[in-house]
Amino acid sequence: FQVKSENRKTIWNTEEVPEGSEFDDTWDPREQPEYEILFKQCVGTEDVFFGMSGKDPSTACCEDIVIKIKLPETKYSDITLDIQDKVLDLRTSKKKLLLHLPYPVNSKEGRARFLSEEEILEVTLRVSRKFDFINFA
């Protein structure tokens, strides 16, 4: 086993460290809120009735990821949200969520809204994927 690194004293290569691990904080006592991950895709009548576009109900054909996070007893002004390409980092005074996303997202084109009656933060993120025979739009 040979280490391929410029500096022989390093323990690991930067490629071996998972993206988003700089956010991990095992000593943080805040609890993790309940959350739900949903996938959305844009379909038309040609998809539903005829299956012409080749899309199927799998997550491989979805364009958006929707994350619904339950934040009871929280105000909108108390929420800090940071979105990276593969990581969602949410922090409030009582809750903390570090979520490694199932697909890379476009962190610049997301949107979030706080549903105060339901005490839910809804974050919608556009999946960034390479074009293929299914995802060509």
Name the strands of the widest sheet in spatial order: 1-2-7-6
Number of strands: 7
- Main sheet: strands, sense, barrel: 4 strands, antiparallel
Which structural class best describes the helix and strand composition?
A: mainly beta
Write down the CATH class: Mainly Beta
Q: Please name the CATH topology.
A: Immunoglobulin-like
Q: How many helical elements?
A: 1
Return residue spans where pLDDT drops below 50 for at least 5 consecutive residues: none
Mean pLDDT: 81
Percent helix range: under 10%
CATH architecture identity: Sandwich
Radius of gyration: 19 Å
Please specify the SSE layout and strand pairing.
Elements: E1 35-40, H1 45-50, E2 64-70, E3 80-83, E4 87-91, E5 96-100, E6 111-115, E7 120-126
Antiparallel strand pairs: 1-2, 2-7, 3-4, 4-5, 6-7
Structure description:
The chain has one domain: Immunoglobulin-like (Sandwich), CATH 2.60.40. The strands form two sheets. The chain has a four-stranded antiparallel sheet with strand order 1-2-7-6, with no helix packed on it. It has a three-stranded antiparallel sheet with strand order 3-4-5, with no helix packed on it. Helices cover 4% and strands 28% of the residues. It is built from one helix and seven strands. The protein is mainly beta and 137 residues long.
